[in-house]
């Protein structure tokens, strides 16, 4: 795709950023829609984050994604006078999508939870968060976004378990709402009666230890998903599928979380398609 002097610019700020799939993802949509624009990887060290954002505004960028380790710093920038945050970004306390307006103000959003819920809606048509309790494994940044989105979507009861129980307690207190913490070694029995099981830990990812989980109490009606997407079919998803559960892999969360930013910067609402999935998988 050729660019003109009017090209719309966006990118992803991270440190490091070389592993990010976002340039390939947005690049696919830019080509698909023949948009005069570009989406760049932007490696920025933590101490330069605020000045880098300022520079992008001066360079005429439309906005940017923000990834590790800048999501909290982006949130703090958006708390400054004249800038804004979406309700979900305020609830979660981090920002992964920045939109710059014509006055140089920042508008911050967090779209990981949106991506998570949209992935379930697309992968398990008819799924509703309100159906029953959700068991969440892990209490890191990913769990924070997932739980906030599930509560917002009407999940009546979140059961949270994490290796370090104090981290789960802190997250539950911070987010508020119907969240119950159980011990990590109770994760098997805690499956009884749930409607949704989510792994938000890094366990099961290529190169990480496996997730050991007794699924004998898991209802067959429960939907099972993993935010790990390398491998696409984790041992958890394979075991749940064998038991007859509907499973949704984690790649779609990455793809769907990118939609709001793309639409804001480039003016087209992009779609998550099989062709996009294949494109991202083939590049790994
Ligand atoms: P992210 O922001 O991607 O969620 P994170 O904040 O590093 O990443 O969280 C990783 C999650 O995986 C945590 O819930 C972590 O548990 P702890 O809070 O106890 O560290 C979990 N995790 C990582 N390795 C684990 C292991 N070997 N056993 C159990 N849980 C593990």
User: Unreliable runs, pLDDT <50, ≥5 residues?
Assistant: none
* CATH domain fold name of the largest domain: Rossmann fold
CATH architectural category of the largest domain? 3-Layer(aba) Sandwich
Please report the number of helical segments. Answer: 11
Radius of gyration: 19 Å
Overall pLDDT score? 97
What's the number of domains? 2
Tally of extended strands?
Answer: 12
The best one-word shape is globular
Provide the succession of SSEs: EHEHEHEHEEHEHEHEEEHEHHH
The CATH superfamily title of the largest domain: NAD(P)-binding Rossmann-like Domain
**Ligand set:** 2'-monophosphoadenosine-5'-diphosphate
Query: Strand order of the main beta sheet, please?
Result: 2-1-3-5-6-4
End-to-end separation in angstroms reads 23 Å
What does this structure look like?
The protein has helices at 22-32, 49-58, 71-78, 87-92, 112-123, 141-152, 165-175, 235-242, 251-257, 259-266, 274-282, and strands at 8-14, 37-43, 63-66, 84-85, 97-100, 106-109, 134-137, 158-162, 179-183, 196-199, 223-226, 246-248. It has 284 residues and is α/β, with parallel strands linked by helices. It has 2 domains: 8-111 and 258-282, Leucine Dehydrogenase, chain A, domain 1 (Rossmann fold, 3-Layer(aba) Sandwich); 113-253, Rossmann fold (3-Layer(aba) Sandwich), CATH 3.40.50. The strands form 2 sheets. It has a 6-stranded mixed beta sheet with strand order 2-1-3-5-6-4, sandwiched between helices. Helix 1 (22-32) links the parallel strand 1 (8-14) and strand 2 (37-43). Helix 5 (112-123) crosses helix 6 and helix 5 (112-123) crosses helix 9 (251-257). The two termini are 23 Å apart. The mean pLDDT is 97. Residues 138-143, 162-164, 167, 200-203, 209 line the site of 2'-monophosphoadenosine-5'-diphosphate. It catalyses: shikimate + NADP(+) = 3-dehydroshikimate + NADPH + H(+). This is Shikimate dehydrogenase (NADP(+)). Residues 134-182 form the Quinate/shikimate 5-dehydrogenase/glutamyl-tRNA reductase domain.
């Amino acid at each position: 795709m050729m660019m003109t002097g009017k090209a719309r610019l966006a990118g992803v700020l991270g440190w490091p950023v070389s592993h990010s799939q976002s340039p390939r993802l947005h690049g696919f949509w830019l080509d698909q829609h023949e948009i005069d624009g570009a989406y760049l990887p932007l490696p920025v060290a933590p101490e330069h984050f605020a000045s880098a954002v300022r520079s992008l505004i001066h360079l005429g960028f439309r906005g940017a994604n923000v990834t590790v380790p800048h999501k909290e710093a982006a949130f703090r920038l958006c708390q400054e006078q004249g800038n804004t945050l979406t309700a979900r970004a305020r609830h979660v306390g981090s920002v992964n999508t920045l939109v710059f307006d014509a006055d140089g103000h920042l508008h911050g959003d967090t779209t990981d939870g949106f991506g998570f819920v949209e992935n379930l809606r697309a992968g398990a048509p008819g799924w509703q968060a309100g159906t029953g309790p959700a068991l969440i494994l892990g209490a890191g940044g990913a769990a924070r976004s997932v739980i906030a989105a599930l509560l917002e979507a009407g999940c009546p009861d979140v059961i949270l378990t994490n290796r370090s129980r104090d981290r789960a307690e802190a997250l539950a207190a911070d987010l508020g709402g119907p969240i119950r913490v159980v011990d990590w070694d109770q994760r098997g029995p805690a499956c009884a009666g749930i409607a949704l099981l989510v792994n938000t830990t890094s366990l099961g990812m290529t190169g990480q230890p496996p997730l050991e989980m007794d699924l004998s109490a898991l209802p067959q009606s429960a939907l099972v998903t993993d935010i790990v997407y390398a491998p696409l079919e984790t041992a958890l998803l394979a075991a749940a599928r064998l038991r007859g559960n509907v499973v949704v892999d984690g790649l779609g969360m990455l793809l769907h979380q990118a939609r709001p930013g793309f639409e804001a910067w480039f003016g087209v609402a992009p779609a998550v398609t099989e062709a996009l999935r294949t494109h991202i998988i083939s590049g790994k």
